[in-house]
Amino acid sequence: MASYVVMEPPGLGEKADATALVRDGFTWLGLLVPPLWFAWHRLWIEAALTFIVMAVLSVLGERLGLGWAGSLLSLLVSLYVGLEGQALRIAALRRRGWREWGVVEAGWLDDADARFALEAERHADEAEPAPRLVPDAALARPAQPGMALGLTHIPGRR
Question: Which of 3, 21, 81, 158 is the most buried (most CB within 10 A)?
């Protein structure tokens, strides 16, 4: 089973179909044609940088007479995109203001979409506020004066 990261757009409101499901894992098209894969997902800067880096590595390999080592360096760039391409997509969505709803495990994208819809419906029905992780300041214990080995300042003492 694959894991799909569910990303919600900013200002989602009531439109649950506007979410994006990004498969977390290796991408074969990212390995085979990295600049085109980035362009397909509208990651223009990443596509341009990948194209430039691969072109520079190939030209340097030819100029320095490295032979197949220059191509191997370009292959390393492709391998990186294959391994980390989906994480770069998620990071780009976060930069655009999208937030992560959670992770759904499913075999296929359609199954993941159905599981997300069921889970989102279940969470909407609960409508129970999440417990606070940080307690109110009014509930905090007052400071205990005492020995502190001189590392803290105690008000009223010199």
Answer: 81
